[in-house]
Write a structure and sequence with these properties.
Number of strands: 5
Order of helices and strands: HEHEHEHEEHH
Distance between the termini: 96 Å
Helix content: 55-70%
Strand order of the largest sheet: 2-3-1-4-5
Structural class: alpha+beta
Radius of gyration: 23 Å
Number of helices: 6
Shape: elongated
Largest sheet: 5 strands, antiparallel
């Protein structure tokens, strides 16, 4: 009876992890061993401010969740201590923040991740980290478009002034 209850509890944990994976736009797995409590607390605070859920999870349920969703690429990375950063809104932000944390805390190491439903290794996580955020890209687009609109307005104004003078 007790073993059946344990099996059901483990199945619930796997289902919970699967829901987090399905909802996430970006996921980064890290080896966090060696971080001090102060470093971990500071990192978690920064992640929370940016809407990132950060959890230390057991490898076996995480592996089972990924496998049940059809992702077998994570198997070789799920050994040793593993913490996972989940972002439901952006695939770049967790890569950027976890990469910054790994740079700041030498003992932390990025293992791999997922962006928009696709497995990415450490190299690609670091490449994503170098990208501007979604907000920055949108801001750049707005400035570019406003410059074009301004140029068009100036041009149309010159044409109107020229016609008034004739």
């Amino acid at each position: 009876m007790a073993s059946q209850q344990i099996i059901e509890e483990k199945a619930k944990v796997v289902e919970s992890i699967k829901e987090k994976i399905k909802a996430a736009q970006g996921i980064v797995l890290v080896d966090y061993i060696g971080l001090t409590v102060e470093q971990d607390t500071a990192m978690r605070s920064e992640l929370r401010k940016n809407g990132i859920e950060y959890s230390v999870l057991k490898n076996r349920p995480v592996q089972r969740a990924f496998n049940e969703l059809g992702y077998n690429e994570f198997d070789s990375y799920l050994n040793g201590p593993t913490a996972i950063a989940f972002s439901n809104s952006d695939c770049v932000v967790p890569c950027k923040l976890m990469s910054e944390s790994a740079d700041k805390y030498a003992k932390m190491k990025i293992k791999c991740g997922m962006a928009d439903g696709k497995f990415i290794d450490e190299t690609v996580v670091n490449q994503y980290a170098k990208l501007p955020s979604r907000e920055q890209l949108l801001t750049n687009c707005v400035f570019a478009l406003s410059g074009l609109v301004r140029g068009l307005a100036v041009c149309l104004n010159k044409i109107a002034e020229k016609e008034e003078n004739n």
